[in-house]
């Protein structure tokens, strides 16, 4: 991936996960689902946890969910994140029944409560790379 203006670690995009990243680039949440039992799963993986089918499809998610938990990152795990520390990483229960982690933007950690509604936002880092984040809905 060519990302001349993005100096943070890049996601490892594989054939298995490419539809998720392509969806983000188009500002859509695309989630993997089982083609047999329709169970949605995230992150993308080859086998259904429920019925063990290896057939999957991609579905468009709502991007809406509730706050399951969060972490305030004071110590950057990579030097490229130092200038934006502290920042909040959230774990969100999406409406589709799966959990997803992404930064939580424009939020005051002292005001957060479990179960708060959040929505997905799309952060265009380069023409090829869009990363997910959440904000309070
Ligand atoms: Zn299944």
Supply database-style keywords.
three-stranded antiparallel beta sheet; about 140 residues; about 40% strand; binds zinc ion; five-stranded mixed barrel; 1 helix; single chain; mainly beta
Summarize the structure.
It contains one helix and eight strands; from the N terminus they run αββββββββ. The protein has 137 residues and is mostly beta strands.
Overview of the molecule:
The chain is mainly β and 137 residues long. The model has no long low-confidence stretch (mean pLDDT 94). The radius of gyration is 16 Å and the shape is globular. The longest helix is centred in the N-terminal third of the chain and has 8 residues, at 18-25. The strands form 2 sheets. The chain has a 5-stranded mixed beta barrel with strand order 4-5-6-8-7. Strands 2-1-3 form a 3-stranded antiparallel sheet, covered by helices on one side. The protein contains 1 helix and 8 strands, in the order αββββββββ. The protein binds zinc ion (ZN). Zinc ion (ZN) binds at residues 34, 36-37, 39, 48, 50-51, 53. Residues 34, 36-37, 39, 48, 50-51, 53 line the site of zinc ion (ZN).
List the helices and strands and how they pair.
Elements: H1 18-25, E1 30-34, E2 40-41, E3 56-60, E4 64-73, E5 87-94, E6 99-105, E7 117-124, E8 130-136
Parallel strand pairs: 6-8
Antiparallel strand pairs: 1-2, 1-3, 4-5, 4-7, 5-6, 7-8
């Amino acid at each position: 991936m060519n990302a001349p203006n993005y100096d943070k670690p890049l996601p490892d995009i594989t054939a298995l996960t490419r539809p998720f990243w392509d969806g983000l680039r188009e500002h859509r949440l695309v989630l993997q689902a089982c083609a047999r039992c329709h169970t949605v799963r995230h992150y993308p993986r080859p086998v259904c946890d429920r019925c063990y089918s290896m057939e999957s499809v991609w579905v468009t998610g709502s991007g809406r969910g509730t706050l399951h938990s969060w972490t305030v990152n004071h110590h950057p795990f990579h030097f490229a994140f130092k200038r934006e520390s502290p920042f909040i990483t959230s774990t969100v229960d999406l409406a589709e029944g799966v959990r997803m982690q992404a930064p939580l933007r424009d939020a005051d950690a002292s005001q957060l409560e479990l179960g708060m509604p959040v929505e997905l936002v799309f952060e265009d880092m380069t023409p090829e790379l869009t990363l997910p984040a959440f904000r309070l809905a």
